[in-house]
Amino acid sequence: MSERNRPMGRKPGPVKITTPRPRSAAEVREIFERFQAANPEPKGELEHTNSFTLLVAVVLSAQATDAGVNKATRKLFELADTPEKMLLLGEDRVRELVKTIGLYRTKARNVVLLSEKLIAKFGGEVPASREALESLPGVGRKTANVVLNIAFGEITHAVDTHVFRIANRLRIAPGKTVLAVELGLEKAVPPEFGRHAHHWLILHGRYTCKALRPECGRCLQNDLCDSPDKRAA
């Protein structure tokens, strides 16, 4: 209807944006029981030797593949596996070692700056709180969640592109923003699966439920999935 022909006094109503219905608790439990049965102890794929190298690896992994980060950090961590050694190495050398990674100039600067702050504010140790971690240069909520989960054993849900996709496709925690999905996972995932949940979702998204060509024929959750992205087996 044109503006001229619209009845007086009536305005177009708001456009409704809906998200899929979340799954029941029993359905979510079934999904994670299948993940656990197939892979009881999933691991992150970023190589590290301690909480500091984990932190650095995660900072470097933004908008980069784990494989690409690992290729660069093998040499970097041989030379500098503590904040003190990283400062001695210096930004120019760090930049040279990580130049194969996207946004390497900014990331190299952040690695050196966070090393400096760890020494100045935290006695050279990686802090075990979200607030303290997020105070470090280059560290956002997702990075903090990864470090808290892997280094300190906390139940956190780091939402990357894979976790976001799978949480929506499987309707575990549908949401339109990263934070909405994270908070949804906190509520939906049974506590006994919480420690490994984001690893299962990342690996599932990376190797099976891919963005453009999901391999539905070999998916553990095929019979439960009703995503519009689902492909014929």
TrEMBL record:
Residues covered by region (Disordered)? 1-24
Q: Provide the catalytic activity annotation.
A: 2'-deoxyribonucleotide-(2'-deoxyribose 5'-phosphate)-2'-deoxyribonucleotide-DNA = a 3'-end 2'-deoxyribonucleotide-(2,3-dehydro-2,3-deoxyribose 5'-phosphate)-DNA + a 5'-end 5'-phospho-2'-deoxyribonucleoside-DNA + H(+)
Listed A to Z, the keywords are: 4Fe-4S, DNA damage, DNA repair, DNA-binding, Endonuclease, Glycosidase, Hydrolase, Iron, Iron-sulfur, Lyase, Metal-binding, Nuclease
State the needed cofactors, names only: [4Fe-4S] cluster
Q: What is its EC number?
A: 4.2.99.18
- Positions binding [4Fe-4S] cluster in this chain are 209, 216, 219, 225
DNA-binding is among the record's keywords: yes
> PANTHER family under this entry?
A/G-SPECIFIC ADENINE GLYCOSYLASE/ENDONUCLEASE III (PTHR10359), ENDONUCLEASE III (PTHR10359:SF18)
Can you say what this protein is called? Endonuclease III
Species annotation: Bosea caraganae
